[in-house]
Amino acid sequence: MARLLVQLKLRLLRNALRSSAGAKFAFIASTVAAGLVAAGTFAILALLRGQSASVDLTTVIFTLFAFGWLILPIVAFGLDSTLDPATLALYPLRAQPLAVGLLAASAAGAWPLANVVGLLGVTVGLARGLTGLVIAVVAVALEVLFCITLARFVTASMARLLRSRRGKDLAAFLVIPIFVLYEAFIQVVPRLTASGKLTAASFDGIDTWLRWLPPAWPRMRSRTHRPGTPAPRCCALRCWPPLSPCSACCGSPRCAVPW
Amino acid sequence: MAEPAIAVHALHKSFGTKEAVAGIDLEIAAGSLAGLVGPNGAGKTTTLSMMTGLLRPDSGQILINRLDVWADPRAVKAIIGVVPAEARLFDRLSGEELLEYAGRLHSLPASEARSRAAQLLDVLDLADDARRLVADYSTGMRKKVALGCALIHNPAVLFLDEPLEGVDPVSGDVIRRLLTRFVGSGSTVLFSSHVMELVEQVCDHVSIIDKGRIVVTGTVDEVRGRKTLQQAFIDRVGSRATDREVLSWLGSSSS
Question: Per the CB < 8 Å rule, is A93 touching B74?
Fold first, then answer.
């Protein structure tokens, strides 16, 4: 089943080149953009090697990717028909092979590949030693799987709305609340941090559950080591920027502190 | 009557406070070409969606060839074919690729799927457009290719929602002939429509649905009596508007 769905997805992607001139241009532009994002992200993550804020910045980049996968499929719904559950609803498919197949199909394409290649920059930027390298690769795989599953969850649960005219309009307007949130964030957060109202400790409650998200698992693993043990824990910590946007955004070095 | 191919008991479905299907009982014999007719909003699509495992009923039971649709939707989907009113197809596949993948998603071997796809394209008069993308197909061509997807695994029962809506007479004739031939081989077809002429021409069984209830069901001759089906339908469902008074301004004789 997974093989069939991946073949189907690749066929759909290839056929984009046979579509109208507009669709063809969009496909080529999107592929080129994916290549640029991959190269750019890899370069940025790699250049962070040895920088003091490398862990924080890497955290932000990983978090941005997750947000991208959360939001973009809503705006671009309809471009990937394997994302629409209605196209497969009529077939007698078992849930488990279907879930695995759809995950595999989602992982096929320029953007998932760009995600993997770009984020692998962390192997140069943060990983130390062989263990660090292995953990970094596993962490990137987990992050990409997390992103893809997140995107699938969003589109599958909102498919009915997104197919409708109203849903498409709403998706187009989604940019407004995102911009408002961003503005509020960059206005309010630095002010609160400067006045001391917002510190790393403010997120004590949130980070206890953020830690349970798949991308944070390698970091969880690091907690199983006794405090003070040097090498393995540091490797794990330094190569894996957990999905804790809060600590990074308020400028806290918390994610670099061995817990 | 022999064991019915489709048996529906006490089917209910509400959306909020609106009762879309208010207790439907229906039995369709195997080998029938049955029509489900009703005005817009009568509950035809909702009923068909529940029968085909696409919409979960609030209560009631649906058996297709003695298999409970909602107890084992996967087993039922393997023996039915469905052409929804607005079929969601993989638009970026060509007609032949779409049929081939439909066959393979129904667990046909690749070579068998390919061969059946070619034959269906031929019968559906789509052979010349087999390599065009479905996105570029007209409404009639989409209906025909969706019908091909629904038939490729040789289902025992075929459901169609408004099969000739927006379809030109030539494509309509192709669909009609294919359905008649399919039923001739012992399979069962149930389709919804509000085109009475079509139902009168091709169906041997008809059920009229209104406000979520089956108003009358039986052979076409039983239901229409001595009238046309159109007249029988209007008599049963009733004319909905008394337009003479409220539209007094309409027409050139008014000032």
Answer: yes
Q: What ranges do the domains of chain A cover?
A: 2-194
Query: How far is B105 from A89, CA to CA, in rounded Å?
Result: 11
Tell me which chain A residues have a C-beta less than 8 angstroms from the C-beta of B100: none
What confidence score (pLDDT) does residue B255 get?
55
- Per-residue pLDDT at B154: 94
For the sheet with B59-64, list strands across it.
Answer: B18-29, B4-15, B59-64, B67-68
Tell me the pLDDT tens digit for each residue of B132-163.
999 899 988 999 999 999 999 999 999 999 88
* Domain range summary for chain B, segments of one domain joined by +: 4-239
Which among B74, B88, B101 is the nearest to A94, CB-wise?
B74
Sheet containing B33-37: order of strands: B80-83, B157-161, B188-193, B33-37, B205-210, B213-219
Give the Cα separation of B110 and B130 in Å (integer): 17
Domain B4-239 has what CATH class?
alpha beta
DSSP secondary structure code for residue B128 in this structure: G
